[in-house]
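dude i think i finally got it to work??
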Amino acid sequence: MSAEHPDAPRAVIVISSHVARGSVGNRAAVFALETLGFPVWAVPTVILPWHPGHGRATRIVPPLDQFKAMMADLERAPWLGEVGAVLSGYLGEAGQADAVASLVATVKAKTPDAIYICDPVMGDSGGLYVPEPTATAMRDRLMPIADIATPNRYELEWMGGARLPDLKAVTAAALHAAPPTMLVTSAPAMMAGGTGNLLLSGSHALLAEHRVIDKPPNGLGDLTAAVYLARILSGQPAIKALQSTTAAVYEILARTAKRGGDELQLETDAQSLSHPMAMVQLRHLLHPGRDKRA
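look at this
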């Protein structure tokens, strides 16, 4: 699935929310992946006119039996061998998790080295914004089967049942989570006035930092998961993937904020996805699990 193997599966199945206006959920992930050269099969878990943070929004959730039937169709698709990765994000209801897990298993049976990246979209500093059964389904059904997970710090807190006030606590929680690779967004930074993306895997503990931008538009987590997946599928090593992903997302955020945009302006800043110029601070941290594995 890298640049060295051009015939490897490159399509990505993205399963998340769809908004008519805005750059969140599938709108962010699909745009980023396709801009970076990856065909996308997009599956909506819920349809909204815009992000509910902008005001009252009609919410259309596919009936669960129909959602499961559609996912089963994808499992039987004659083109399933094209798929090299699955990315799941926001779920419309808890029952969708079983269908996602079944699809992931079928994709991996067809292509054993396919990647499943779980973005457990469930909450932020204000708490959960999905029903608790939906959050529980993501934690208990999807996180354990993920190769990579991209929770924010507050989602990691909820899943672990403990506050994570500092970088040491976030690192320990990420290390003990189920997926072998954890990319934690909104992690505490070591630089003053900053925030970070913490990447923890079997061999790396890395922190990419940039300054905080107040009142950011929604969709940063969706975009981060998609861009990081694209970097990995392109064959980038974890260190470069983390740095370039953080730079791209921060650059788009900063440019959107400068224009006063209330949504990430991906179409205006598409070049930032492939060739970001923003500087981010990359730190190599002491891996807390190394001694235990020695």
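The mean pLDDT is 93.
im so relieved honestly
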